[in-house]
Amino acid sequence: MRSSLTQVESPRTFPGAVAPQRHYRVDADGVGIAVNEWGDQRDPVLVMVHGGADFSRTFDVFAPLFAAAGWRVVAWDHRGHGDSDHTHLYSFEADLRDATRVLDAVAPRRPVAVLGHSKGGAILTSLAEAQPFRFRSFINLDGIPYRRPGPDLPEYQRADALNTEITGWLEHRRRSATGSRKPGTIEELASRRAQMNPRLSTEWLEYLVTVGAREDADGWRWKLDPSMRMGGFGPWKPEYGLFRLAGLGVPFLGVLVGADEPMGWGTKSHQVEKWIPVNGRLEYFDDLGHFIHIEQPKMVADMALEFLGAPA
Amino acid sequence: MSTVTLQHNRIELALHQLRPATGEGRPLLLLHGLGERTPTSVPHDVERWQGSVWGLDFTGHGESTIPVGGGYSAEVLLGDVDAAINHLGNVTLVGRGLGGYVALLAAGARVDAVHGAVITDGPGLTGGSYESSVPQSARLMDQGQIPDPYALHELSRDVRAADYALDFVQYSVANSELAEPINVSALYRPTWLAEVAAAPGVASLPLGDALNLYR
Predict the structure, then answer these.
(1) For the segment A227-283, what is each residue's pLDDT rounded down to a tens digit?
(2) Which CATH architecture has domain B2-214?
Protein backbone atom coordinates (compact mmCIF):
# COMPACT_ATOMS: atom_id res chain seq x y z
CA MET A 1 0.00 0.00 0.00
CA ARG A 2 2.70 2.49 0.96
CA SER A 3 6.30 2.71 -0.04
CA SER A 4 8.91 5.29 0.77
CA LEU A 5 10.58 7.21 -1.99
CA THR A 6 13.81 9.14 -1.97
CA GLN A 7 13.58 12.90 -2.22
CA VAL A 8 16.00 14.37 -4.71
CA GLU A 9 17.68 17.63 -3.71
CA SER A 10 16.28 20.54 -5.74
CA PRO A 11 18.84 22.56 -7.75
CA ARG A 12 16.93 25.77 -6.88
CA THR A 13 15.81 27.20 -3.56
CA PHE A 14 13.08 29.67 -2.73
CA PRO A 15 12.69 31.70 0.47
CA GLY A 16 10.45 29.77 2.87
CA ALA A 17 10.16 26.69 0.65
CA VAL A 18 10.59 23.42 2.54
CA ALA A 19 10.63 19.98 0.91
CA PRO A 20 8.09 17.54 2.39
CA GLN A 21 9.29 15.54 5.40
CA ARG A 22 7.57 12.37 4.21
CA HIS A 23 6.90 11.10 0.71
CA TYR A 24 5.14 7.82 -0.12
CA ARG A 25 2.68 6.27 -2.53
CA VAL A 26 -0.87 5.10 -1.99
CA ASP A 27 -2.46 2.57 -4.31
CA ALA A 28 -5.72 3.92 -5.74
CA ASP A 29 -7.25 0.94 -7.54
CA GLY A 30 -4.01 0.31 -9.41
CA VAL A 31 -3.04 3.96 -9.89
CA GLY A 32 -0.06 5.00 -7.76
CA ILE A 33 -0.77 8.29 -6.00
CA ALA A 34 2.25 10.24 -4.67
CA VAL A 35 1.63 11.73 -1.22
CA ASN A 36 3.70 14.45 0.49
CA GLU A 37 3.54 15.39 4.15
CA TRP A 38 4.85 18.27 6.23
CA GLY A 39 4.80 18.45 10.03
CA ASP A 40 4.78 16.02 12.94
CA GLN A 41 3.11 12.73 12.07
CA ARG A 42 1.28 12.72 15.43
CA ASP A 43 -0.37 16.10 14.82
CA PRO A 44 -3.99 16.39 13.57
CA VAL A 45 -4.34 16.02 9.81
CA LEU A 46 -4.90 18.99 7.51
CA VAL A 47 -5.46 17.87 3.92
CA MET A 48 -4.41 20.21 1.08
CA VAL A 49 -5.67 19.57 -2.44
CA HIS A 50 -3.98 21.28 -5.40
CA GLY A 51 -5.65 22.61 -8.53
CA GLY A 52 -5.69 21.44 -12.16
CA ALA A 53 -2.26 21.21 -13.85
CA ASP A 54 -0.61 21.86 -10.46
CA PHE A 55 0.97 19.38 -8.03
CA SER A 56 1.34 19.05 -4.27
CA ARG A 57 4.73 20.69 -4.10
CA THR A 58 3.17 23.99 -5.10
CA PHE A 59 2.47 23.99 -1.32
CA ASP A 60 6.21 24.02 -0.47
CA VAL A 61 5.95 27.49 1.10
CA PHE A 62 2.31 27.41 2.24
CA ALA A 63 2.18 23.97 3.94
CA PRO A 64 5.16 24.49 6.30
CA LEU A 65 3.34 27.49 7.83
CA PHE A 66 0.61 25.09 8.98
CA ALA A 67 3.09 22.42 10.04
CA ALA A 68 4.75 25.01 12.29
CA ALA A 69 1.33 25.71 13.84
CA GLY A 70 0.78 22.07 14.84
CA TRP A 71 -0.83 20.49 11.79
CA ARG A 72 0.22 17.35 9.91
CA VAL A 73 -0.26 18.58 6.35
CA VAL A 74 -1.09 15.84 3.83
CA ALA A 75 -1.13 16.64 0.11
CA TRP A 76 -1.03 14.38 -2.92
CA ASP A 77 -0.52 14.69 -6.65
CA HIS A 78 -3.71 13.99 -8.62
CA ARG A 79 -3.47 11.10 -11.08
CA GLY A 80 -1.44 12.22 -14.10
CA HIS A 81 0.06 15.14 -12.11
CA GLY A 82 3.40 15.49 -10.33
CA ASP A 83 4.84 12.16 -9.19
CA SER A 84 1.57 10.19 -9.41
CA ASP A 85 1.09 7.59 -12.13
CA HIS A 86 0.02 8.51 -15.62
CA THR A 87 -2.93 6.28 -16.37
CA HIS A 88 -5.46 5.39 -19.06
CA LEU A 89 -8.35 7.66 -18.12
CA TYR A 90 -8.89 10.88 -16.18
CA SER A 91 -12.13 12.23 -14.78
CA PHE A 92 -13.40 14.38 -11.94
CA GLU A 93 -15.04 11.35 -10.34
CA ALA A 94 -11.78 9.37 -10.56
CA ASP A 95 -10.00 12.26 -8.79
CA LEU A 96 -12.65 12.09 -6.08
CA ARG A 97 -12.14 8.35 -5.65
CA ASP A 98 -8.36 8.75 -5.52
CA ALA A 99 -8.85 11.35 -2.76
CA THR A 100 -10.78 8.83 -0.68
CA ARG A 101 -7.97 6.29 -1.04
CA VAL A 102 -5.47 8.79 0.39
CA LEU A 103 -7.88 9.78 3.17
CA ASP A 104 -8.43 6.10 3.99
CA ALA A 105 -4.65 5.74 4.33
CA VAL A 106 -4.06 8.78 6.58
CA ALA A 107 -7.33 9.20 8.50
CA PRO A 108 -9.74 6.31 7.88
CA ARG A 109 -13.38 7.27 8.58
CA ARG A 110 -12.18 10.14 10.76
CA PRO A 111 -13.10 13.79 10.16
CA VAL A 112 -10.16 16.00 9.16
CA ALA A 113 -9.62 19.64 8.26
CA VAL A 114 -9.36 20.16 4.50
CA LEU A 115 -8.16 22.96 2.23
CA GLY A 116 -8.52 22.98 -1.54
CA HIS A 117 -7.23 25.41 -4.14
CA SER A 118 -9.09 25.92 -7.43
CA LYS A 119 -10.09 22.50 -8.83
CA GLY A 120 -8.98 21.07 -5.47
CA GLY A 121 -11.70 23.17 -3.83
CA ALA A 122 -14.24 21.85 -6.32
CA ILE A 123 -13.14 18.24 -5.66
CA LEU A 124 -13.57 18.75 -1.92
CA THR A 125 -16.98 20.41 -2.41
CA SER A 126 -18.18 17.27 -4.23
CA LEU A 127 -16.55 14.94 -1.73
CA ALA A 128 -18.26 16.82 1.12
CA GLU A 129 -21.60 15.73 -0.32
CA ALA A 130 -20.52 12.18 -1.13
CA GLN A 131 -18.67 11.47 2.13
CA PRO A 132 -19.42 14.17 4.70
CA PHE A 133 -18.11 12.00 7.56
CA ARG A 134 -14.56 12.78 6.41
CA PHE A 135 -14.85 16.55 7.02
CA ARG A 136 -14.09 18.57 10.13
CA SER A 137 -13.78 21.99 8.50
CA PHE A 138 -13.29 23.17 4.93
CA ILE A 139 -11.29 26.02 3.38
CA ASN A 140 -11.82 26.72 -0.31
CA LEU A 141 -9.25 28.99 -2.03
CA ASP A 142 -10.72 30.42 -5.25
CA GLY A 143 -12.34 27.09 -6.10
CA ILE A 144 -15.98 28.12 -6.46
CA PRO A 145 -16.95 28.12 -10.14
CA TYR A 146 -19.90 30.33 -11.02
CA ARG A 147 -19.85 30.19 -14.79
CA ARG A 148 -18.30 27.96 -17.43
CA PRO A 149 -14.74 28.73 -18.54
CA GLY A 150 -14.46 30.67 -21.80
CA PRO A 151 -16.60 33.50 -23.11
CA ASP A 152 -20.35 33.74 -22.47
CA LEU A 153 -22.05 33.08 -25.78
CA PRO A 154 -25.55 33.53 -27.12
CA GLU A 155 -27.52 30.31 -27.65
CA TYR A 156 -27.00 30.18 -31.44
CA GLN A 157 -23.20 30.31 -31.11
CA ARG A 158 -22.95 27.75 -28.31
CA ALA A 159 -23.17 24.64 -30.50
CA ASP A 160 -20.45 26.03 -32.82
CA ALA A 161 -18.15 26.77 -29.88
CA LEU A 162 -18.74 23.31 -28.42
CA ASN A 163 -17.91 21.70 -31.76
CA THR A 164 -14.68 23.69 -32.06
CA GLU A 165 -13.69 22.59 -28.57
CA ILE A 166 -14.57 18.94 -29.13
CA THR A 167 -12.87 18.59 -32.50
CA GLY A 168 -9.76 20.18 -30.97
CA TRP A 169 -9.90 17.62 -28.17
CA LEU A 170 -10.45 14.71 -30.59
CA GLU A 171 -7.49 15.82 -32.73
CA HIS A 172 -5.39 15.90 -29.55
CA ARG A 173 -6.59 12.37 -28.67
CA ARG A 174 -5.48 11.13 -32.10
CA ARG A 175 -1.93 12.29 -31.36
CA SER A 176 -1.68 11.75 -27.62
CA ALA A 177 -0.68 8.06 -27.60
CA THR A 178 2.85 8.99 -28.63
CA GLY A 179 2.99 12.54 -27.25
CA SER A 180 5.62 13.81 -24.86
CA ARG A 181 6.14 17.21 -23.27
CA LYS A 182 8.47 19.68 -24.91
CA PRO A 183 11.89 19.72 -23.21
CA GLY A 184 13.64 22.92 -22.22
CA THR A 185 15.85 24.64 -19.71
CA ILE A 186 14.56 25.56 -16.25
CA GLU A 187 14.19 29.13 -17.49
CA GLU A 188 12.21 28.06 -20.59
CA LEU A 189 9.77 25.90 -18.63
CA ALA A 190 9.29 28.69 -16.09
CA SER A 191 8.53 31.22 -18.81
CA ARG A 192 5.99 28.84 -20.40
CA ARG A 193 4.29 28.43 -17.04
CA ALA A 194 4.27 32.19 -16.57
CA GLN A 195 1.57 32.36 -19.26
CA MET A 196 -0.75 30.47 -16.88
CA ASN A 197 0.69 32.09 -13.74
CA PRO A 198 1.32 35.70 -14.87
CA ARG A 199 1.33 37.12 -11.33
CA LEU A 200 3.93 34.74 -9.88
CA SER A 201 7.63 35.60 -9.73
CA THR A 202 10.21 34.09 -12.06
CA GLU A 203 12.15 32.94 -9.02
CA TRP A 204 9.12 30.94 -7.78
CA LEU A 205 8.31 29.49 -11.21
CA GLU A 206 11.92 28.37 -11.70
CA TYR A 207 11.79 26.72 -8.28
CA LEU A 208 8.54 24.96 -9.33
CA VAL A 209 10.27 23.55 -12.41
CA THR A 210 12.82 21.84 -10.20
CA VAL A 211 10.12 20.13 -8.09
CA GLY A 212 7.41 19.62 -10.75
CA ALA A 213 9.48 18.70 -13.79
CA ARG A 214 12.04 15.98 -14.38
CA GLU A 215 15.42 16.37 -15.99
CA ASP A 216 15.99 14.16 -19.04
CA ALA A 217 19.10 14.01 -21.24
CA ASP A 218 17.57 16.59 -23.61
CA GLY A 219 16.26 18.96 -20.94
CA TRP A 220 13.54 19.46 -18.33
CA ARG A 221 9.94 18.30 -18.90
CA TRP A 222 6.87 18.98 -16.77
CA LYS A 223 5.73 15.70 -15.21
CA LEU A 224 2.07 16.38 -16.05
CA ASP A 225 0.76 13.63 -18.35
CA PRO A 226 1.02 14.98 -21.92
CA SER A 227 -2.25 13.24 -22.81
CA MET A 228 -4.11 15.63 -20.49
CA ARG A 229 -5.45 18.84 -21.97
CA MET A 230 -6.62 22.05 -20.40
CA GLY A 231 -10.20 23.14 -20.78
CA GLY A 232 -13.11 20.83 -20.71
CA PHE A 233 -16.55 20.18 -22.03
CA GLY A 234 -19.29 17.89 -20.94
CA PRO A 235 -22.67 18.11 -19.30
CA TRP A 236 -21.16 19.57 -16.11
CA LYS A 237 -22.64 22.84 -14.86
CA PRO A 238 -21.00 25.18 -12.33
CA GLU A 239 -24.22 25.50 -10.33
CA TYR A 240 -23.88 21.87 -9.21
CA GLY A 241 -21.02 23.01 -6.98
CA LEU A 242 -23.05 25.92 -5.60
CA PHE A 243 -25.92 23.60 -4.63
CA ARG A 244 -23.42 21.44 -2.76
CA LEU A 245 -21.86 24.44 -1.06
CA ALA A 246 -25.24 25.38 0.38
CA GLY A 247 -25.53 21.91 1.87
CA LEU A 248 -22.19 21.85 3.70
CA GLY A 249 -22.54 20.77 7.30
CA VAL A 250 -19.11 21.81 8.60
CA PRO A 251 -17.48 25.21 9.22
CA PHE A 252 -16.55 26.74 5.86
CA LEU A 253 -14.19 29.49 4.76
CA GLY A 254 -14.38 30.54 1.12
CA VAL A 255 -11.77 32.86 -0.39
CA LEU A 256 -12.27 34.67 -3.70
CA VAL A 257 -10.03 37.10 -5.57
CA GLY A 258 -10.50 40.06 -7.87
CA ALA A 259 -7.59 39.86 -10.32
CA ASP A 260 -8.50 38.06 -13.56
CA GLU A 261 -6.13 35.25 -14.50
CA PRO A 262 -6.09 32.49 -17.14
CA MET A 263 -6.35 29.72 -14.53
CA GLY A 264 -9.06 31.37 -12.39
CA TRP A 265 -12.81 31.05 -12.65
CA GLY A 266 -13.29 34.78 -12.12
CA THR A 267 -16.01 34.24 -9.52
CA LYS A 268 -17.03 37.37 -7.58
CA SER A 269 -18.49 37.44 -4.07
CA HIS A 270 -21.92 38.78 -4.99
CA GLN A 271 -22.41 35.93 -7.47
CA VAL A 272 -22.08 33.16 -4.90
CA GLU A 273 -22.61 34.63 -1.44
CA LYS A 274 -26.21 33.47 -1.20
CA TRP A 275 -24.97 29.86 -1.50
CA ILE A 276 -22.53 30.13 1.41
CA PRO A 277 -23.83 27.87 4.20
CA VAL A 278 -24.96 29.35 7.52
CA ASN A 279 -21.83 28.13 9.28
CA GLY A 280 -19.61 29.53 6.53
CA ARG A 281 -17.98 32.80 5.60
CA LEU A 282 -16.61 34.32 2.43
CA GLU A 283 -13.52 36.52 2.16
CA TYR A 284 -12.78 38.58 -0.94
CA PHE A 285 -9.44 40.11 -1.98
CA ASP A 286 -9.89 42.46 -4.89
CA ASP A 287 -6.19 43.05 -5.60
CA LEU A 288 -4.96 39.44 -5.38
CA GLY A 289 -4.96 36.64 -7.97
CA HIS A 290 -5.96 33.00 -8.31
CA PHE A 291 -2.78 31.74 -6.62
CA ILE A 292 -3.43 33.85 -3.54
CA HIS A 293 -1.72 31.32 -1.24
CA ILE A 294 1.47 31.69 -3.28
CA GLU A 295 1.21 35.47 -3.65
CA GLN A 296 0.52 36.02 0.06
CA PRO A 297 1.29 32.74 1.90
CA LYS A 298 1.63 34.27 5.34
CA MET A 299 -1.55 36.36 5.18
CA VAL A 300 -3.63 33.44 3.85
CA ALA A 301 -2.12 30.99 6.34
CA ASP A 302 -2.82 33.33 9.26
CA MET A 303 -6.43 33.73 8.13
CA ALA A 304 -6.84 29.97 7.67
CA LEU A 305 -5.19 29.12 11.00
CA GLU A 306 -7.44 31.56 12.80
CA PHE A 307 -10.45 29.95 11.10
CA LEU A 308 -9.28 26.40 11.90
CA GLY A 309 -8.61 27.12 15.57
CA ALA A 310 -6.37 24.91 17.68
CA PRO A 311 -5.31 21.72 15.86
CA ALA A 312 -6.12 19.30 18.69
CA MET B 1 -15.14 -11.97 -38.33
CA SER B 2 -11.83 -10.14 -38.57
CA THR B 3 -10.51 -7.63 -36.06
CA VAL B 4 -8.40 -4.50 -36.39
CA THR B 5 -6.65 -3.01 -33.33
CA LEU B 6 -6.82 0.77 -33.08
CA GLN B 7 -5.01 3.08 -30.69
CA HIS B 8 -6.98 5.67 -28.70
CA ASN B 9 -4.52 7.40 -26.41
CA ARG B 10 -3.27 4.50 -24.22
CA ILE B 11 -6.25 2.26 -24.99
CA GLU B 12 -6.16 -0.47 -27.64
CA LEU B 13 -9.57 -0.76 -29.24
CA ALA B 14 -10.93 -3.83 -31.00
CA LEU B 15 -12.77 -2.92 -34.21
CA HIS B 16 -14.47 -6.00 -35.64
CA GLN B 17 -15.54 -6.44 -39.21
CA LEU B 18 -18.70 -8.52 -39.04
CA ARG B 19 -19.15 -8.74 -42.78
CA PRO B 20 -17.53 -7.26 -45.91
CA ALA B 21 -19.66 -5.14 -48.26
CA THR B 22 -22.23 -7.04 -50.34
CA GLY B 23 -22.89 -4.10 -52.63
CA GLU B 24 -22.53 -0.33 -52.82
CA GLY B 25 -22.41 1.87 -49.77
CA ARG B 26 -20.39 3.12 -46.86
CA PRO B 27 -19.50 1.11 -43.76
CA LEU B 28 -22.09 0.67 -41.02
CA LEU B 29 -20.56 0.93 -37.55
CA LEU B 30 -22.42 -0.70 -34.66
CA LEU B 31 -21.93 0.72 -31.16
CA HIS B 32 -22.92 -1.66 -28.38
CA GLY B 33 -24.73 -0.79 -25.17
CA LEU B 34 -23.27 -0.42 -21.68
CA GLY B 35 -21.80 -3.72 -20.51
CA GLU B 36 -22.16 -5.36 -23.92
CA ARG B 37 -19.65 -6.14 -26.64
CA THR B 38 -19.78 -6.32 -30.42
CA PRO B 39 -22.02 -9.20 -31.55
CA THR B 40 -20.33 -12.11 -33.34
CA SER B 41 -22.55 -11.87 -36.41
CA VAL B 42 -24.52 -9.20 -38.24
CA PRO B 43 -27.71 -8.53 -36.28
CA HIS B 44 -30.90 -9.44 -38.12
CA ASP B 45 -32.23 -5.87 -38.21
CA VAL B 46 -29.24 -4.48 -40.14
CA GLU B 47 -28.73 -7.45 -42.49
CA ARG B 48 -29.97 -5.52 -45.51
CA TRP B 49 -27.17 -2.95 -45.29
CA GLN B 50 -25.04 -3.34 -48.44
CA GLY B 51 -21.83 -1.74 -47.26
CA SER B 52 -19.48 -3.47 -44.87
CA VAL B 53 -20.68 -3.95 -41.27
CA TRP B 54 -18.38 -3.23 -38.33
CA GLY B 55 -18.64 -3.18 -34.56
CA LEU B 56 -16.44 -1.35 -32.05
CA ASP B 57 -15.73 -2.65 -28.54
CA PHE B 58 -15.71 0.44 -26.30
CA THR B 59 -12.93 1.04 -23.76
CA GLY B 60 -13.28 -1.49 -20.93
CA HIS B 61 -15.53 -3.76 -22.99
CA GLY B 62 -15.07 -6.87 -25.15
CA GLU B 63 -11.53 -7.19 -26.49
CA SER B 64 -10.53 -3.55 -25.86
CA THR B 65 -8.16 -2.52 -23.07
CA ILE B 66 -9.45 -2.55 -19.49
CA PRO B 67 -8.09 0.74 -18.08
CA VAL B 68 -6.53 0.88 -14.61
CA GLY B 69 -8.60 2.68 -11.97
CA GLY B 70 -11.63 3.80 -14.01
CA GLY B 71 -12.24 7.41 -15.08
CA TYR B 72 -14.85 6.84 -17.79
CA SER B 73 -17.05 9.40 -19.50
CA ALA B 74 -19.28 9.33 -22.56
CA GLU B 75 -16.75 11.73 -24.11
CA VAL B 76 -13.98 9.11 -23.77
CA LEU B 77 -16.21 6.71 -25.72
CA LEU B 78 -16.70 9.47 -28.30
CA GLY B 79 -12.90 9.40 -28.64
CA ASP B 80 -13.18 5.62 -29.22
CA VAL B 81 -15.65 6.22 -32.07
CA ASP B 82 -13.38 8.91 -33.49
CA ALA B 83 -10.54 6.39 -33.69
CA ALA B 84 -12.85 4.04 -35.62
CA ILE B 85 -13.94 6.87 -37.94
CA ASN B 86 -10.29 7.72 -38.52
CA HIS B 87 -9.83 4.12 -39.73
CA LEU B 88 -13.08 3.59 -41.65
CA GLY B 89 -13.73 7.05 -43.09
CA ASN B 90 -17.34 8.09 -43.72
CA VAL B 91 -19.74 5.85 -41.75
CA THR B 92 -23.34 5.43 -40.68
CA LEU B 93 -23.74 4.74 -36.96
CA VAL B 94 -26.23 2.52 -35.15
CA GLY B 95 -25.95 2.64 -31.38
CA ARG B 96 -27.67 0.59 -28.70
CA GLY B 97 -28.38 2.33 -25.41
CA LEU B 98 -25.22 4.11 -24.24
CA GLY B 99 -23.84 3.48 -27.75
CA GLY B 100 -26.80 5.47 -29.10
CA TYR B 101 -25.93 8.44 -26.91
CA VAL B 102 -22.30 8.21 -28.07
CA ALA B 103 -23.49 7.99 -31.69
CA LEU B 104 -25.34 11.27 -31.14
CA LEU B 105 -22.19 12.89 -29.74
CA ALA B 106 -20.22 11.63 -32.76
CA ALA B 107 -22.84 12.95 -35.19
CA GLY B 108 -22.37 16.41 -33.69
CA ALA B 109 -18.61 16.24 -33.22
CA ARG B 110 -17.66 14.70 -36.60
CA VAL B 111 -20.46 15.90 -38.80
CA ASP B 112 -18.59 15.38 -42.09
CA ALA B 113 -17.71 11.76 -41.28
CA VAL B 114 -21.02 10.59 -39.81
CA HIS B 115 -23.71 10.04 -42.42
CA GLY B 116 -26.61 9.41 -40.10
CA ALA B 117 -26.76 8.23 -36.49
CA VAL B 118 -29.49 5.88 -35.28
CA ILE B 119 -30.28 5.67 -31.57
CA THR B 120 -31.90 2.39 -30.53
CA ASP B 121 -32.98 0.84 -27.23
CA GLY B 122 -30.32 -0.87 -25.14
CA PRO B 123 -28.42 -0.85 -21.86
CA GLY B 124 -27.28 2.54 -20.65
CA LEU B 125 -29.82 4.56 -22.64
CA THR B 126 -31.05 6.38 -19.55
CA GLY B 127 -27.70 7.44 -18.16
CA GLY B 128 -27.52 8.96 -14.71
CA SER B 129 -29.67 11.75 -13.46
CA TYR B 130 -30.87 14.67 -15.52
CA GLU B 131 -28.83 16.92 -13.23
CA SER B 132 -25.80 16.08 -11.10
CA SER B 133 -26.23 13.19 -8.68
CA VAL B 134 -24.40 12.47 -5.43
CA PRO B 135 -20.82 11.55 -6.37
CA GLN B 136 -19.89 7.95 -5.63
CA SER B 137 -16.50 6.80 -4.50
CA ALA B 138 -17.03 3.26 -3.29
CA ARG B 139 -14.20 0.83 -3.94
CA LEU B 140 -15.08 -1.83 -6.48
CA MET B 141 -13.61 -5.18 -5.55
CA ASP B 142 -13.89 -7.07 -8.82
CA GLN B 143 -11.50 -5.07 -10.99
CA GLY B 144 -9.87 -6.53 -14.08
CA GLN B 145 -13.04 -8.26 -15.25
CA ILE B 146 -14.65 -7.82 -18.67
CA PRO B 147 -16.61 -5.63 -18.93
CA ASP B 148 -14.81 -3.38 -16.48
CA PRO B 149 -16.92 -2.86 -13.32
CA TYR B 150 -15.80 0.79 -13.33
CA ALA B 151 -17.32 1.20 -16.80
CA LEU B 152 -20.62 -0.16 -15.53
CA HIS B 153 -20.45 1.96 -12.39
CA GLU B 154 -19.43 5.27 -13.94
CA LEU B 155 -21.21 5.12 -17.29
CA SER B 156 -24.54 4.19 -15.72
CA ARG B 157 -24.41 7.43 -13.70
CA ASP B 158 -23.18 10.07 -16.17
CA VAL B 159 -25.19 13.28 -16.29
CA ARG B 160 -27.48 13.43 -19.35
CA ALA B 161 -28.45 17.05 -19.45
CA ALA B 162 -30.81 17.63 -22.38
CA ASP B 163 -29.38 21.04 -23.27
CA TYR B 164 -25.94 19.45 -23.71
CA ALA B 165 -27.32 16.70 -25.97
CA LEU B 166 -29.25 19.33 -27.94
CA ASP B 167 -26.05 21.26 -28.70
CA PHE B 168 -24.83 18.17 -30.59
CA VAL B 169 -28.16 17.83 -32.38
CA GLN B 170 -28.14 21.50 -33.37
CA TYR B 171 -24.61 21.37 -34.78
CA SER B 172 -25.28 18.14 -36.66
CA VAL B 173 -28.55 19.36 -38.19
CA ALA B 174 -27.07 22.74 -39.17
CA ASN B 175 -23.98 21.27 -40.83
CA SER B 176 -24.88 17.81 -42.14
CA GLU B 177 -25.63 17.14 -45.79
CA LEU B 178 -28.63 15.15 -44.57
CA ALA B 179 -31.93 16.88 -43.73
CA GLU B 180 -32.38 14.53 -40.78
CA PRO B 181 -28.93 13.29 -39.70
CA ILE B 182 -30.17 11.83 -36.40
CA ASN B 183 -32.83 9.18 -36.02
CA VAL B 184 -34.38 8.01 -32.77
CA SER B 185 -35.63 4.44 -33.18
CA ALA B 186 -35.69 3.76 -29.44
CA LEU B 187 -39.14 3.07 -28.02
CA TYR B 188 -38.12 4.13 -24.53
CA ARG B 189 -37.22 7.82 -24.34
CA PRO B 190 -35.71 9.13 -21.13
CA THR B 191 -35.86 12.93 -20.72
CA TRP B 192 -32.74 13.74 -22.70
CA LEU B 193 -33.80 11.50 -25.57
CA ALA B 194 -37.38 12.79 -25.65
CA GLU B 195 -35.99 16.30 -26.10
CA VAL B 196 -33.59 15.11 -28.80
CA ALA B 197 -36.41 13.31 -30.64
CA ALA B 198 -38.56 16.46 -30.54
CA ALA B 199 -35.84 18.69 -32.02
CA PRO B 200 -36.03 19.89 -35.64
CA GLY B 201 -33.97 17.69 -37.97
CA VAL B 202 -34.37 14.54 -35.89
CA ALA B 203 -36.38 11.67 -37.39
CA SER B 204 -38.15 8.92 -35.46
CA LEU B 205 -38.25 6.07 -37.97
CA PRO B 206 -37.91 2.36 -37.18
CA LEU B 207 -34.30 1.14 -37.64
CA GLY B 208 -34.88 -0.49 -41.07
CA ASP B 209 -36.46 2.66 -42.51
CA ALA B 210 -33.72 4.84 -41.06
CA LEU B 211 -31.06 2.69 -42.72
CA ASN B 212 -32.87 3.05 -46.05
CA LEU B 213 -32.68 6.82 -45.56
CA TYR B 214 -28.97 6.79 -44.75
CA ARG B 215 -27.66 4.18 -47.21
Answers:
(1) 998 767 888 888 888 989 999 999 999 999 999 888 888 899 999 999 999 989 999
(2) 3-Layer(aba) Sandwich (3.40)
Measuring CA to CA, which residue among A267, A246, A200, A228 is closest to residue A60? A200
On whether residue A70 sits in a domain, the answer given is yes
Contact B159, B134 (CB under 8 A): no
Angstrom distance (rounded) from CA A77 to CA A51: 10
CA distance B28 to chain A (A): 21
Whether B162 has its CB under 8 Å from any CB of chain A: the answer is no
Residue A32 lies in a domain: yes
Beta-carbon separation of B134 and A100 below 8 A: no
Is the whole model's pTM more than 0.80, yes or no?
Answer: yes
Nearest to A159 among B65, B134, B167 (CB): B167
Indicate if A205 and A115 belong to the same structural domain: no
- The CATH number that applies at residue A45 is 3.40.50.1820
Inform me whether the C-beta atom of residue A175 falls under 8 Å from chain B C-beta atoms.
Answer: no
Q: Which residues from chain B sit within 8 angstroms of residue A235, using beta carbons?
A: 158-161, 164
Please report, as a single letter, which amino acid is at residue A152: D
B137 contacts on A by Cβ (under 8 Å): 93, 96-97, 99-100, 127, 130-131
pLDDT at A17 over 80: yes
What are the structural domain ranges in chain B?
2-214
Q: How confident is the model at residue B128 (pLDDT cuts 50, 70, 90)?
A: confident
Does an H or E element contain A160, and which?
A: helix A155-175
Q: Which domain holds residue A65?
A: 22-148+237-308
**Alpha-carbon span B29 to B15, nearest angstrom:** 9
Chain B residues whose CB is inside 8 A of the A91 CB are 70-73, 76, 154
- Residue A77 above 70 pLDDT? yes
Q: Which of B136, B139, B142, B188 is nearest to B157 (CA)?
A: B136
pLDDT tens digits, one per residue of B169-183: 999 999 999 999 999
Rounded to the nearest angstrom, the minimum Cα separation between B38 and chain A is 22
Q: Is there a single domain that holds both residue A257 and residue A141?
A: yes
Q: Which of residues 35-74 of B touch A (CB under 8 A)?
A: 59, 65, 67-73
Q: Which residues in A lie closer than 8 A to residue B108 (C-beta atoms)? A: 159, 162-163, 166
Predicted confidence (pLDDT) per residue in B48-92, tens digit:
999 999 999 999 999 999 999 999 999 999 999 999 999 999 999
pLDDT surpassing 80 at residue A223: yes
Residues A259, A198: Cα–Cα separation, whole Å = 11
Q: Does ipTM exceed 0.90?
A: yes
Half-sphere exposure of B96 (CA within 13 A, CB side): 19
The continuous run of DSSP H or E covering A200 comes out as: none
Per-residue pLDDT at A103 = 96
Task: Tell me the residues of chain B between 175 and 194 that have a Cβ less than 8 Å away from chain A.
Answer: none
Among A143-147, A188-192, A201-205, the least confident range:
A143-147
How many domains does one find in chain A? 2
Q: How many CB pairs under 8 A join A and B?
A: 134
Is residue B95 helix, strand or coil? Answer: strand
Query: Is the pLDDT assigned to residue B131 strictly greater than 90?
Result: no
